[in-house]
Design brief:
Elements: E1 4-14, H1 21-30, E2 43-54, E3 59-63, H2 70-78, E4 85-90, E5 93-94, E6 105-109, H3 120-130, H4 135-149, H5 166-179, E7 184-188, H6 196-213, E8 216-220, H7 224-230, E9 233-238, E10 241-246, H8 248-253, H9 258-263, E11 270-278, E12 281-284, E13 287-290, E14 304-309, E15 314-317, E16 326-338, E17 343-350, E18 353-360, E19 370-375, E20 381-384
Parallel strand pairs: 3-8, 3-9, 6-7, 7-8
Antiparallel strand pairs: 1-2, 1-4, 4-5, 9-10, 11-12, 11-14, 12-13, 14-20, 15-19, 16-17, 16-19, 17-18
Helix pairs in contact: 3-4, 3-5, 4-5, 5-6
Bound molecules: adenosine-5'-diphosphate (ADP).
Adenosine-5'-diphosphate binds at residues 13, 15, 44, 46, 64, 66-72.
Length: 391
């Protein structure tokens, strides 16, 4: 077990796609892209001064759009990517010179990364052979892990990875991560290649293991359900930077900026840009929206504001709604039923407003129908449009 810290970690790569063709010939001649002097314009900043602390025994999940640096972050922690600036510490010890094989990490990848020429027991014992651990100890450890993974897991051990299904391969890969008693679990999109049912089963299996061992974990995924289910805290990344770290509830209730608000949530927050401040109101299209007392001192006349509200703040009904709130009329553009929750997501449009709400499945709605909408004015979020920062 270990506390993991990243201090001001930056990684940049030469992006071959941005190197002009004439330079590519030169690159081929010199054969080593890394040693080439390259202009800043040809570099991708995969991580940009990243600071993160994962307390001992907690699992952090990392989400963000494709290319934002999630895998690079994981690879830096693992030591697979060692060309970085800044520091990576395990329990306050700088890991710069320690190769991945000596860090006691259990890694699980999307593509399983099993050795095809060994049977599965061989895949599990590889680490012990490498570290010259006795056969008896190795057998005990494999048996213990196999028992943990469930009765039928034993039957997979004599087979080779090539004869297993995707789900079985991933179970072997998870067992291989556990068998070595790691200080740290690292997962890089481990469930992406599995079908929906297996994804849920394996997710539950991983959750049980994380709980059982209380091993520090870092889990990269593009799937928010996974991030919510497995993470004690969620790290939201964007363009090589960490935008925010927190529990799902913290991130949903208090997003620090428009990126986090517009990224997290299924679906994410409604965001309406194009508004500006006039006195104590926000002018957005034809609507005048009252600004909360807390936000009023933080804004100036003419300031450009993006308005945010979650689906749950929107009430749609056929009858005219009463009480406080922004009252609108809108056309139903699309409906998405959720039979497990007995709710439906309604996509509504009126003029420049385009947003989603949620209501019970019992409310019978049709496409094209005009509905009355009330948006709870206590649940509005205001973002400075230029900086994206939440006010
Ligand atoms: P993610 O996992 O969030 O999709 P990555 O960490 O894989 O993102 O990549 C971050 C950025 O760094 C991307 O722009 C990607 O193209 C670039 N990148 C990653 N690895 C390399 C590499 N070995 N060489 C060049 N560019 C890379």
């Amino acid at each position: 077990m270990a506390r993991i810290q990243l201090r001001d970690v930056s990684v940049s790569f030469t992006d071959p796609a941005r190197v002009p063709v004439s330079r590519m010939f030169q690159v081929r001649r010199e054969r080593n892209l890394e040693d080439m002097p390259v202009e800043a314009a040809n570099r991708v900043q995969a991580l940009d001064r990243v600071n993160l602390t994962i307390p001992n025994g907690q699992t952090f999940t990392v989400v963000g759009p494709s290319g934002c640096g999630k895998s690079t972050l994981l690879r830096v922690v693992a030591g697979i990517e060692n060309k970085y600036r800044g520091q990576v510490l395990y329990d306050d010890v700088d890991m710069q010179d320690l190769p991945p094989g000596d860090r006691y990490i259990g890694m699980v990848f999307q593509n399983y990364a099993l050795y095809p020429n060994f049977n599965n027991a061989g895949n599990l014992s590889f680490f012990f052979k490498n570290h010259k651990i006795s056969d008896e100890q190795t057998r005990e450890r494999i048996q213990y892990t196999s028992d943990l993974m469930g009765i039928e897991f034993n039957e997979l051990l004599p087979r080779r990875p090539g004869t297993l299904s995707g789900g079985e391969k991933q179970r072997v890969a998870i067992a291989r991560a556990i068998v070595r008693v790691p200080k740290l679990f690292l997962f890089d999109e481990p469930l992406s290649n599995l079908d929906a049912k297996l994804r849920v089963q394996t997710r539950v299996e991983i959750k049980k293991l994380l709980h059982k061992f209380s091993i520090t974990g870092l889990y990269v995924t593009h799937d928010q359900q996974e991030a919510i289910a497995l993470g004690d805290q969620i790290v939201v990344m964007h363009a090589g930077r960490i935008e925010q770290v927190g529990t799902y509830q913290q991130l949903m209730e208090n997003p620090v900026n428009v990126f986090v608000a517009g990224f997290l949530g299924l679906p994410p927050m409604n965001l309406l840009s194009g508004g500006s401040i006039s006195g104590d109101k926000l002018v957005l299209g034809d609507e005048l929206i009252p600004i909360s007392k807390r936000v009023q001192p933080l804004v100036q006349n003419g300031q450009r504001i993006t308005l945010g509200f979650r689906l749950e703040a929107v009430q749609a009904s056929v009858e005219k709604s009463s009480g406080n709130g922004i009252q609108l009329q809108g056309e139903v553009e699309a409906l998405e039923p959720d039979y497990t929750q007995r709710t439906q997501v309604i996509y509504i449009r009126n003029g420049i407003w385009n947003y989603a709400g949620v209501c019970s499945l019992d409310v019978k709605l049709n496409l094209g129908q005009i509905v009355n909408v009330k948006i709870d004015s206590e649940r509005l979020y205001f973002f400075d449009t230029d900086s994206g920062i939440r006010l």
